[in-house]
Amino acid sequence: METISNPQELQNLCLMLRSEGKKISLVPTMGYFHEGHLSLMDAARKQCDVLIVSLFVNPTQFGENEDLEAYPHDLGRDSLLAEEHGVDILFTPVRDDMYFDDHGTWVEVPDLASNLCGQSRPIHFRGVATVVTKLFMTAQPHVALFGQKDWQQLAIIKRIVRDLNIPVDVQGHEIVREESGLAMSSRNVYLTEEEKSVAPNIQKGLQKMRAQVAAGESDVAKLKSDLIEFYAETVPMGKIDYIEIVHPDNINILKSVGDSALCAVALQLGNARLIDNLLIKV
Ligand code: AMP
Prior knowledge:
- Helices cover 39% and strands 20% of the residues.
- The chain is an alpha/beta fold.
- The chain has 2 domains: 2-173, Rossmann fold; 186-276, Pantoate-beta-alanine ligase, C-terminal domain (Pantoate--beta-alanine Ligase, Chain: A,domain 2, 2-Layer Sandwich), CATH 3.30.1300.
- The strands form 2 sheets. A 6-stranded parallel beta sheet has the order 1-4-3-2-5-6, with helices on both faces. Strands 7-8-9 form a 3-stranded antiparallel beta sheet, covered by helices on one side.
- It is globular and about 55 Å long.
- The model has no long low-confidence stretch (mean pLDDT 98).
- The structure holds adenosine monophosphate.
- Adenosine monophosphate (AMP) binds at residues 29-30, 36-37, 40, 146-147, 149-150, 173, 175-176, 183-186.
């Protein structure tokens, strides 16, 4: 495995690899790998000649009072894991490699970025959209893999690729969970034992909602209030940031569950802001 931190060097290499007919896959990450990241690497490995994983804690997607400085990192461990999972190139730029002091070009998708996480993290998706576009331009991937845990992010990236004619196949992969049902996240290390013991109820509540929908309930207000009640009982120290039922493709908030609906939640539990989602109607 080769580690590259200079974007120009990576781009030159990738342009050469493409001209040789090599198929490139990219898995963008912020590091501190868990099974969710590793499953994306494994899925990518199976469908390419060259597997690139980027590891960059992108400052432009963090708001002022968020955890940019505290974000967990362990490059040594991540390098070993990447190598074990067949990664060819680990791309590890630092901030100054990725952004000029006077960086002023942004990619924005306001239609999809205004609700859910965009409400409480107003600059988040502008940062994500911009860095992912930069990664696409740099690594020139044929395929890029993302997790469905960040459903809104995935919808935004698919829209960018469509709207800007970027020649990359964007794939969304299933959420990898702890045995308890808690969605894996680098931020789970912030949880205390007590918080970790109640956090699986986030997913349990979503499954309960899906069962209600299967039993015929379609009123979003009722479904939401039942879930709020469930979390109040089972995750009492959690502070709900949002619970929304949206259309999975355009992220529009629904009043009634139609043919296709996703419930997405964000909850602050101690120092961790946890997100999860479930398709409650397919
Ligand atoms: P992050 O390092 O948190 O930015 O995540 C990098 C990629 O891994 C993103 O595409 C995430 O959606 C994905 N990812 C994070 N957690 C999980 C998970 N539990 N299951 C599947 N994919 C995940």
